[in-house]
Amino acid sequence: MKNVTLYGYPTSPYVIKVGSFLKYKNIPFEYIPVNPVSPIQIKFTGQRQVPVLKIDQEWRKDSTQLGIWLDELFPEKPLLGNNESDRNAILLIDKWVSDNLILGKFRAAVEWEKTWDALRNGWLLSRAVNNGTKIPLFVRMLWPFFVKKAKFIVDMVSHLDKKESIASMLLFYT
Ligand SMILES: N[C@@H](CCC(=O)N[C@@H](CS)C(=O)NCC(=O)O)C(=O)O
Fold it and tell me: Checking DSSP bridges between strand 30-33 and strand 52-55, what pairing results, if any?
């Protein structure tokens, strides 16, 4: 039996994606919440990006690559289907989820259309983070502003095609 550990910020959709892969494949794993303010739990990786998946002594990152890795190590219940054409279709859907669906949510956190909704969402996220790893109350209060300014989110959103409205991007993400 392999030792599987998933490390991630409690609010990361990419972490939830990999957690879903593991659950779908019935692979027992330990989840270690990572503190986004000071990610000491993944210090051993020398970087800050989650999800990080550790299987026995090896660790890797990037949700799509992690799905491919899981299928290689645990071929039961393949995530990528049973033939080339299924695999290509599934990878296309996965790319849409990663690049559009998830990024639509990130975009709403950066481009506040309704201030109170954005604040409320930010505070809800801070509660989820605090449930995993404790963060000070004043940091929780400021969380919507940290998310709005978070470099990796701002960078990802800056590459988005803005022709589609946020409302339309989020239609499928409620
Ligand atoms: N392409 C990556 C994206 C992962 C990602 O952007 N993770 C965010 C959390 S949602 C992160 O760790 N950001 C912190 C950073 O990159 O410094 C994946 O699919 O896993």
Answer: unpaired
Q: Cα(1) to centroid of ligand 1, in Å?
A: 28
The domain total for the chain is 2
54 membership: H or E segment, kind and range = strand 52-55
Answer whether residue 46 is part of any domain.
yes
Residues 66 and 116 in one domain: no
Pocket test for ligand 1, best of 14, 103, 155 (most atoms within 8 A of CB): 14
pLDDT per position as a tens digit, 24-60: 999 999 999 999 999 999 999 999 999 999 999 999 9
Ligand 1 mean position, distance from CA 117 (Å): 24
The model's pLDDT over 54-104, given as tens digits with 9 standing for 90+, comes to: 999 999 999 999 999 999 999 999 999 999 999 999 999 999 889 888 998
